What we know:
Largest sheet: 2 strands, antiparallel
Number of helices: 21
Helix content: 55-70%
Radius of gyration: 22 Å
Shape: globular
Order of helices and strands: HHHHHHHHHEEHHHHHHHHHHHH
Strand content: under 5%
Mean pLDDT: 81
Number of domains: 1
Amino acid sequence: MKKSRDNQIFQFCKLELVISTIIALLVYAGIKYSIFMYFAFFLLLVSILSSKGNKYILYVLFVFPFSAIFKISIFGSISILNIIIIVVLLKQLFSYLNGKISIDKAELFLWVIVSIYISLSSFGMIIDAMQTVGYFIFILLFLNSNNKVKFSVSASSMILFFIFGLVLSSIMAITKGIYPELSSLLVYEITYFGDNDVVRFSGLFLSSNYYSMVITMAVAFLLVLYDTKVLNKTFFIVLPLLIYFGFLTGSKSFLVSVLVIFFVYLFWVFFSNIRKGFKTITILLIILLLFLSFADLTSINDVLQRYLYDFQNSFDLSDFTSGRISISLVYLKYIFSDLTVFLFGTGFNSGPLNDVASHNYILEVFYHLGFMGSLIYFLLVIRLITKNMEKKNFNLLLIIPLAVFILRSFAINLFFRDSLYFYIILISSVFYLPRNVEVQSRIH
Length: 444
């Protein structure tokens, strides 16, 4: 009997999935008993160092959603994720020096220029710029070696580990009410509307806005896996969970983005296969109704009231975007009023204008690096994202994660966030997905 595609992927990375889950559980226990946090760090370190080929990326993607709580006192406030990235980078560089990895010359040139520009604009505080520079070389080395080395990992496996880590961390975050030690680590964002208030869910990310973007990206990636027939049953189990967690964030950006995603996806499905479209909608509605019958209806109602209040009291675009349009106009006015700022930016380490974040990734980069720096910076980002894009394997739906990333970028700061680099890796890998599916079918 032929195994389903879901089972094929799980079998291919079964050991890594089991180890990653154990690490996550140790981190959860380590919040109360620190010894478990050390065990988690040791197991993660050994697993990455002993992993074959590029399988280390699966562990990194899985533990990413736990980075805010995955900390050890000996490292101070530094996240274990940052320590692990350094270890992985050293492992990659060792492979590069041994001739196992060859970097595209154009990408390497852009990275060098971006690194020099960021270092010079950091006003001597080079250490602060090293994280951005380091993450980019980490992406360069990974994307230039994956699918070329033995034991490379497929895009589908990477996305699934990212999503499973996110779902598990979200489930753990819900237990904060019965786990005081976890509750003390999380930040509670309260939004007031009228005479009421609602606590916005943020998973383990400490920010509902950043968490809602991660959830949105996960939904986009999941739809691509379903459409490319990588997933079937797992899709209908995980998708309602992601939508539920995203809804609890109370984020209008999440709501709008998900509606756009599903509108585009369903339009595409009905256009290409009406029967599949009806089947997908019917199954999703049934599962969603069953899921809601067991969910916390009080929390859902509170968030729903918040959404309705915001929509009813949004008299213009600025109100609807929670003031983001007005903030962007202030930033643009400041940038264009000074030629030096326009050309070269305010500097990598400069604080936000008037201590108010731009809430716009594109504008944020422009503000810090100026026109010249933004140009080479985005050339590098675009080059990395489109690295695996090929006309012969192109599928319009593969653009959904990239489109969502661009859409959400206009409403959130990402320049100094770790999540940015994982989005780049996963979006770039998505374009390799049709070939991955082909190869994995032959493997199994």
